Amino acid sequence: MKLIILVSCVMCFSSVAFSASVDKSLIFLQKYGYLDSTPISSNKFSRLRDEKNYSKALKRFQRFYGLNPTGIANTETLLALDLPRCGVKDPNTSKQTRHKRYTFMDQSLWKKRDLTYKISKYSYHLDRNLVERDIEKAFAEWSKYTDFTFTNSKSQNADIDIRFERRDHGDGDPFDGPGGVLAHSEVRFTMVE
């Protein structure tokens, strides 16, 4: 009798864990553009259609991240869902091919190669000198692998504005706290561009 209860408990916990992982992946797929955000239907036909769409969206995510495209929320996929990431939706998530990550729709954003940056808002928790040094090192590393150079500028017209923000920071895309979205970028064009 004790064995049966233990097996039942393990099966219940496994079912709850699986359900939670599907919920988590569903939220992620909607948030990052793999799945539209329409509510899940309750009738049988619509649920079947929703399951097919979910599986297709999960396959697109898996391809984009270089995983085996099974359409199943397996351990490898769930680990990829937990990786810290930029808050911007992944590009071209509706296509069936793998894409370069960290590019702006596979196009160069700037016509010029010598870019300026400024840090307009610092973190309260980090030393300013360390922040400046680490950002300078990061740009130096990028310069090694791209045709861009990056120069620190105090100008209001710098090409790149770096700000350390929390939660809702006025752009309509709030950060979700520790362990969630680490950063995101916005593309802003002037009237000249």
UniProtKB/TrEMBL annotation:
Signal peptide bounds: 1-19
Domain Peptidase M10 metallopeptidase residue range list: 110-185
Assigned GO CC terms: extracellular matrix; extracellular space
Residue span, Peptidoglycan binding-like domain: 29-81
Sequence positions that bind Ca(2+) 3: 176-177
Keywords, alphabetical: Calcium, Hydrolase, Metal-binding, Metalloprotease, Protease, Signal, Zinc
Any one GO MF annotation of this record: zinc ion binding
Cofactor note: Binds 2 Zn(2+) ions per subunit.
Residues where Ca(2+) 2 binds: 159
UniProt KW Cytoplasm keyword: no
GO biological process: collagen catabolic process; extracellular matrix organization; proteolysis
One Pfam family this sequence matches: PG_binding_1
Cofactor entry: Zn(2+); Ca(2+)
Protein residues bound to Zn(2+) 1: 169, 171, 184
Family designation: Belongs to the peptidase M10A family.
Protein name stated in the entry: Uncharacterized protein
